[in-house]
């Protein structure tokens, strides 16, 4: 298995292209709990180009009915990225002040369950993010979000 770098620039470029609309190559999960993690996975995939097809332990999208839970589920994506030792992207939970473009921030609105994924697109002069939600955002200031807990998933690389 080869360790590959994660192309943060390509991930962010994809993010800007699709932040305010939907890529027709992917299912829109707005009516099924939200599209935020699906969008974050698309951005992540644009930067690594490798999916992990190990069923529900993996991270992949073929169709709305053939995908890993980690592709579109907040907690599942976190678990996959922070424990993955196989194909696909991998990362670690770090402090928010370690954010880099191409990382993912997840928010908890109740202090218990993390329910929203946003994608970091810039860190200077402050953290800017993009997200699919009831309103789509591109270059939104992270400080404008109201949440109880936030966690950063820093993407370290990918394997193929």
Walk me through what this model shows.
It is built from four helices and nine strands. With 160 residues, the chain is an alpha+beta fold. The protein has a single domain, classed as endopeptidase fold (from Nostoc punctiforme) (Alpha-Beta Complex). The strands form two sheets. Strands 1, 4, 5, 6, 7, 8 and 9 form a seven-stranded antiparallel beta sheet that branches. A two-stranded antiparallel sheet has the order 2-3. β2 and β3 (66-67) form a beta hairpin.
- Mean pLDDT figure: 95
N- to C-terminal distance = 6 Å
Class based on secondary structure composition and strand pairing:
alpha+beta
Determine Rg (CA atoms, Å). 14 Å
Query: What is the N-to-C succession of helices and strands?
Result: EHHEEHHEEEEEE
- Biggest sheet descriptor: 7 strands, antiparallel
CATH topology: endopeptidase fold (from Nostoc punctiforme)
Strand element count = 9
What characteristic shape results from the CA principal axes?
globular
What would the keywords be for this entry?
7-stranded antiparallel beta sheet, endopeptidase fold (from Nostoc punctiforme), 160 residues, alpha+beta, two-stranded antiparallel ribbon, single chain, 9 strands, 4 helices, 30% strand
């Amino acid at each position: 298995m080869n360790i590959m770098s994660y192309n943060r620039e390509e991930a962010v470029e994809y993010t800007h292209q699709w932040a305010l609309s939907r890529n027709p190559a992917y299912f829109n999960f707005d009516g099924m709990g939200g599209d935020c993690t699906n969008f974050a996975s698309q951005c992540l995939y644009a930067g690594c180009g490798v999916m992990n097809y190990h069923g529900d332990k993996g991270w992949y999208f073929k169709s709305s009915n053939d995908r890993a839970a980690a592709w579109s589920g907040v907690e599942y994506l976190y678990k996959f990225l922070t424990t993955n030792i196989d194909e696909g992207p991998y990362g670690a939970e770090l402090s928010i002040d370690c954010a880099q473009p191409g990382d993912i921030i997840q928010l908890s609105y109740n202090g218990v369950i993390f329910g929203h994924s946003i994608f970091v697109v810039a860190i200077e002069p402050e953290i800017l993010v993009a997200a699919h939600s009831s309103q789509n955002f591109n270059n939104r200031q992270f400080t404008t979000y109201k949440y109880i807990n936030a966690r950063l998933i820093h993407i370290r690389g990918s394997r193929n």
